[in-house]
Amino acid sequence: MSWCSAVVFSAVLAVSWGAEDLSFPPGFKFGAATAAYQVEGAWNASDKGESIWDRFVHEDPGRIFNQNNGDIACDSYNQVEKDIEIAAELGLHYYRFSLAWSRILPTGFPNQISKEGADYYNRLIDGLLAKGIEPFITLYHWDLPQPLQDLGGWANPLIADWFEDYARVVYTLYGDRVKLWVTLNEPVVTCDLCYIMGIFAPGIVSPDVGTYLCNKHAMLAHAKAWRVYDEEFKPKYHGRVSIANHLLWFEPLTEADTELADLARQHLAGRYCHPIYSKEGGWPASIEKLLEKNSRDRGYNRSILPTFTQEEKELVRGTYDFFAFNHYTSRKIRWAKEGETFSQWPLGDAEELNGKIEIPEHWTPAAASWFFVNPDGIRQQLLWLKEQYGDFEFMITENGMATFGGLEDHDRINFYREYLKQILIAIKEDGLNITHYTAWTLLDNFEWSDGYNVKFGFYEVDFEDPLRTRRPRLSAHWYKKVIQEHSLDVTNDEL
Ligand SMILES: *[C@@H]1O[C@H](CO)[C@@H](O)[C@H](O)[C@H]1NC(C)=O
Ligand SMILES: *[C@@H]1O[C@H](CO)[C@@H](O)[C@H](O)[C@H]1NC(C)=O
Ligand SMILES: *[C@@H]1O[C@H](CO)[C@@H](O)[C@H](O)[C@H]1NC(C)=O
Prior knowledge:
The protein has a single domain (about 5-495), classed as Glycosidases (TIM Barrel). The chain is an alpha/beta fold. Helices cover about 40% and strands about 15% of the residues.
């Protein structure tokens, strides 16, 4: 990588916002994230059980770009020291990673705890702490143990109890050293991408029923895992637990689409936030009404959105210690015209809402098909959350940009700078309490359906090389500098 290219990004910054104060508040923390299946590899090491992603990629390799899979991925299972080393090189305050449920509990149940599996995460946690990096754990990032899938997975209400049992094992193993937790990562992806489109494991298409069953059970599972911590572990360990929802920002295409845009926000964000963060709990009223009507129109005799009992509403309501969310991109939405056909959500349309997605020309596309750059979206998203649910401590648990590779990733630096600038505005002008920013991702990894084709990493990984050599991109040097200076005002001569 060439240091000369560093001149470019600071020059651009000076032109666009030079006079402003670009420093972050004291105590603001920067991190980076990964997920187990995307980096670990070692899918069959020691007594690890099979996960739904192992099954999904092996059963039909054609499901993934270039028939890629996560069998080896970044080989992080065998090269954990290298990940810790680059996290330290960046100067991260914390590292957010997920645990492979089937690595710790090979059967999915707590009847068998894998010593080698549990030790892997001990090595990671202890190695991070030795470098002064706080471990931030995600309990579930999409890799359900296959034996639980065989019993219905997220469509079975008992998943909430199974997840609670798993969570208790994990808090017992690591709670003494880990103080920040997320239960589920982006359940909207687990439920909608799996059941509407079948493009993610377990690849079951059941857009009416499966999607909403999964939605409800994810809420119950999160709540039970939160309450286990709150009751059994928080008194001695004083850690904090929440959920990381995926929020896409929706804007109306024209004024006539304002109500639709709100419906789209409720459908995507509200279904996963309202039960937890709203004062009254349960589903958003507008979604309950819409899905009742859609259910009748499609000949169902009860709503496809399963109701919460009063007891379940109370179980889920208030189960957070902070408000975490992942954010990447935005959409414009308009009402569909008579007879217009739909492509599938979330890459295309919002058929459930009778909405069509439009992307304005000035939102630059990124390497992934679903991805367009709209920095203002993250601030608007934050303001909407405050307006809907009230004031919270907010943590951005993922944000980052896809490219097709290359070490001189000016476009990624631009992306981070522009999105972080909006976060600064939200803190300084809107008065929001945003305390953590998590870049996705530490290093290139297995990007689900896109395989290794799409790159999100600060570090490039050579997937042809058995050593999976990691090399810093320009953006790695930039992020390191931002963390060091605690400011977006980073100058070239120091780089
Ligand atoms: C693990 O899977 C790999 C393929 O990724 C295979 O070559 C190897 O034999 C398997 N190891 C065991 C112990 O089954
Ligand atoms: C639908 O449910 C109602 C009661 O909610 C019942 O009266 C009706 O017979 C049911 N229809 C069918 C086809 O099962
Ligand atoms: C932000 O939230 C944290 C955690 O609740 C709290 O300690 C801090 O005082 C808050 N900061 C502001 C500026 O409200």
